[in-house]
From TrEMBL:
Origin organism lineage: Eukaryota, Viridiplantae, Streptophyta, Embryophyta, Tracheophyta
Pfam families (UniProt xref): Abhydrolase_6
Gene3D superfamilies per record: alpha/beta hydrolase
PANTHER family: 2-SUCCINYL-6-HYDROXY-2,4-CYCLOHEXADIENE-1-CARBOXYLATE SYNTHASE, AB HYDROLASE-1 DOMAIN-CONTAINING PROTEIN
Keywords: Hydrolase
Matches recorded under InterPro entries: AB_hydrolase_1, AB_hydrolase_fold, Serine_prot/Carboxylest_S33
Domain (AB hydrolase-1) ranges: 61-325
Family stated for the protein in its record: Belongs to the peptidase S33 family.
Molecular functions (GO terms): hydrolase activity
Organism: Gossypium tomentosum (Hawaiian cotton)
Name the record gives this protein: AB hydrolase-1 domain-containing protein
Amino acid sequence: MARLIRNKQGIPSTLLTRFLNSPSSLLTLPYYSTSKRSLRTLAYEEIQANPNKPYTHTAFILHGLLGSARNWRSFSRTLVSSLSDSPSEWRMVLVDLRNHGNSAEMEGLDPPHDLVNAAKDLGNLINSKGWESPDVVIGHSMGGKVALQFAKSCGNRDYGENVKLPKQLWVLDSVPGEVTSDNSDGEVEKVLQTLQSLPSTVPSRTWLVNHMLDLGFSKSLSEWIGTNLKKAGGEETWAFNLEGAVQMFHSYRELSYWSLLEHPPKGLEISIVRAEKSDRWDADVITRLESLASPEGDGSAGKISVHVLPSSGHWVHVDNPKGLLEIMAPKLKSLMP
């Protein structure tokens, strides 16, 4: 059973969400300490298996569009558990990107709301806390492109000398190039257009889910959208800044990171995980990615690896968390203390 934690205002927050539960076989874990922070830069949560021990390694985890840090709590706890037998002590930092989760209410996260500034927010967070740079950055969907932008900017030293390249970058079911109408089914656009057509408050979560179902959206998607509501008096309102998120989505579609994949910086391994059943990948993109997968080499440049997550759609941490863990954990364990 998940431990209940409280933030500074004394509001309870469960460690697992209804929609994003992992299979029960993955939930027989030790208890974990989870701390929550809200900064002027970004809101984030920390998960560490042994909070009384100093951590030796840090991984940042970045959610996708209209998501939040809480979407990744369950998988992060499972990942920490799988790493507990290594000599390293891992800390997971689950970030709420700008316009999302608790960061949606943060002051100082000014426009333009694009991936360049979303990645810069990470650099500002590191600098403001005086942290060392994360060893690993993990990004899902839109968060995967934020991770790629972060690595690109670190390579250019855009955030100062203190913010260095991570050793590993994980891009989870995120197409690295431009996303055009030709290689998109348009579902995300339809969701955003639907949300924009609604008032800023709705009667209840049940009303929203039923409304989405009536419009032809799937039950799982409708329920997930419903998890992004928060109380506003007697009604419910969005837990994200919708207009800012829409701007971030446009940036996600427009930016391409093929050049980074073709010339990865020395010391960085970029691991691309493609979900086997995901509808976001064209055959030519898959072929191009596989051609970039690099052998060990002589160490003069970075490395690209490509993995296929079987029996999974786009929601990799929900559809096949065990398989994702089996791909990621050995590589994280390979990082020396």
